[in-house]
Amino acid sequence: MRLTCDMGNGVEDMKQQGLWIIVVVAIIVAAGLTTHRIRIEQENTRVELVMDYSGLKELSYQSDLPMTYILSQLQPVGVTQIALSEWTFADQLVANNSFLDPSATKLWNEVHVRGQHLTEPVGFAIDEIAIIESMGFSIVPRVNNRKAIHQDLQVVLGDLHPNLLIFAGNQMIGYPENIQTTDTVVQGLSARIGLVEFSSQLGLAQIASVENSVRVHAISAGEMELLPTNRIVSRYLRAVRERNIRVLYLRPFVTGPQPLARTLEMLSSLETELVTSGFTLGQAMPYPRWTASKGVLAILYLGVWAGVWLLLLYFMECPKRIVYGTLLVVWVVTIAIAQMYPARIQQGMALLGACLLPGLAVLVGKDIHGRSLSQYSFVSGVTLAISLLMVGLLSQTEYMIKLLEFRGVKLMHIVPVMILFLYGLLAPTLPFTRTKQLTSQIGKWWGYRLPIKYLLAGTVLAGVGYIYLQRTGSFGFPVSQGEIALREGLERLLIVRPRTKEFLLGYPILYFLLRAKIQHPLLLAIAVIGPLSTVNTFTHIHTPVIYSLLRSVYSMVFGYLLGWLLYKVYSWWRGWRNDDSNIWVLRIRQLGR
């Protein structure tokens, strides 16, 4: 029985030309979407500075300075809004009920107090509101959910009419039964919602939308006391430049020598860095709604499926009618399902492309004729083209502000590695022409008796793979101080920092593999880390395309240089070993005597 799949291993194979044409057309369409997205990103340059009032109270207490004086120093350095947190029941008791709106005090006095209710929010202090507004600042309320008693958002806000709301805690006020009431109040206020980075709140997706959402980045009070000023400024600037953050939630220094002076210095430096980078201070605006049409997405889906077939043809031979017949069927089915579950199909096709197409880039580059530089450049170009497909597939403002996110990051970091490792093992027998060849190969592997050294090596590789996976994503194994220093040095030297695993591991090994003409399974598996990481970079739709492109080009260039150096060391070692193959053994023996 033949596998339902006639293919050759070269790009020039006539049977593959049609598939490549489809892929190229899809990439051109994706490039058009990318250009439009770049224009949207470049037009949104206003950054809003919001200062935390709780931190200012602590600063006032520690430095013995009047709050009015501290507030008067903030406007000249760009702060226009003050974030005000609610008081808790415990705060109210300490203040003898004199600080809150009388209606809120009366309401809470009717509640039977238990210990667990002492941390419940009870509203905003009217004296604090008066101080902030008298100094000319707008108030950004930080609203918590209630557990002990029901209060809707309108009651909590009272006479406040904010233009920006930040919801604190792990769930929205009114969630779950009265979330619609919260939505109605937000719409009535025409207020923007601050989406705090790295936080997750139940009910937020039912309130936030493209039209009313801006992304917020904050540094915790604990971190503020540990980080030097330059790192704090760099972190805020990086958030704005590289992650579409448009509201910076600021906290003052409250300990150490001259905390107010240090705070003002930080704010002044931040303002200068933002302006130098092309941003302006002012009210942050939501990004406009932007999405690809169903027809455009259909073309991109076809491009991904064509790329999948190009990869499959490296493993098995198939008649042309089977290739294109299957391609048509899966494309039609994909479009049909997309009518019912558009977001899931978008994410699913993006994940499919991210898992399979980086391996295609490496295999195609390996098989073309030419010098290693030409091959390396070809792989890099194909990788960037595949990355544009990811941008096109995730063309939607919801991804830019992370109301929607690309899923499957860890999967896309392991599948291409496994595919290339498998290809390296099977390469002498590929492509398969009959099912029997595949089953025979599986039978041989099943009957292998592995020496202990291979089992030990496999255990080590499994450990390395675990660390590699844990280092993907925003949270995982901690980064060493040496790597932090390297990252910060690169950030100061370059416009944007290249990804470590790309320019120090993946791309150097890719160049070495192409230059040395080695097809070792392990080298193939490591070589694909560069392209897959680049594709992953472009699935971060909240990062401006220009910065993703710069980061990837830096990785490719530095990776090439390190790969060239690695090959030179390898060549020197091989030459020395061949020229001195017997004498070096004698020298070692002499040393051992």
Describe this structure in words.
The chain is an alpha/beta fold. It folds into two domains: 46-86 and 124-281, Alpha-Beta Barrel (TIM Barrel); 289-577, no CATH class. It is built from 26 helices and ten strands. It has a seven-stranded parallel beta barrel with strand order 1-2-5-6-7-8-9. A two-stranded antiparallel sheet has the order 3-4. α9 (204-207) links the parallel β7 (192-196) and β8 (213-218). The chain starts with 13 loop residues before the first helix and ends with a helix.
Question: Which secondary structure elements does this structure contain, and how are they paired or packed?
Answer:
Elements: H1 14-43, E1 46-52, H2 53-63, H3 67-72, E2 81-85, E3 87-88, H4 89-94, H5 102-109, E4 121-123, H6 126-134, E5 138-143, H7 153-157, E6 164-167, H8 179-189, E7 192-196, H9 204-207, E8 213-218, H10 221-226, H11 229-243, E9 247-250, H12 259-276, E10 280-281, H13 294-312, H14 320-340, H15 342-367, H16 372-393, H17 397-400, H18 409-426, H19 435-446, H20 452-470, H21 481-493, H22 500-516, H23 521-527, H24 529-539, H25 545-579, H26 583-592
Parallel strand pairs: 1-2, 1-9, 1-10, 2-5, 5-6, 6-7, 7-8, 8-9
Antiparallel strand pairs: 3-4
Helix pairs in contact: 1-13, 1-16, 11-12, 13-14, 13-15, 14-15, 15-16, 15-18, 15-24, 16-22, 16-24, 16-25, 18-23, 18-24, 22-23, 22-24, 22-25, 24-25
